[in-house]
Amino acid sequence: MNELKDALIKDWGSCLDCDYEGLLEYRHLEGEDYGDSESLGVMLLQRCPACESEAHSLIPIEYYRELLELLIEQQASAALGLGEDSDE
Asked: In this predicted model, what pLDDT tens digit does every residue of 8-25 receive, in sequence order?
């Protein structure tokens, strides 16, 4: 989890401040326990790319784990893509 602590998670959503609909950005919060196996949810910092407003967002733990799996897959794909480019 430490390598993902500073990762930027993007997910589809709506901004309550400006009504933007699209990919919102989420970051981990300092001091939040993201490894608690009994937690029902986690708090993330949500940022709107359109109006740059920030808010705390409570994410259900099952959905958070899905987002992390997608992030890990994207990072692995990007790493493989970089390896292929260097061979050419």
From this structure: 899 999 999 999 999 999
Residue among 52, 21, 27 nearest 42 (CA): 27
Strands (E), the chain: 9-14, 21-28, 41-47, 54-60
Q: What does the alpha-carbon distance between residue 73 and residue 32 come to, in Å, rounded to a whole number?
A: 24
**Amino acid letter, 30:** E
Mention every residue, 6+ apart, whose C-beta is less than 8 A from residue 9: 25, 26, 27, 44, 67, 68, 71
Q: Is the pLDDT of residue 42 over 60?
A: yes
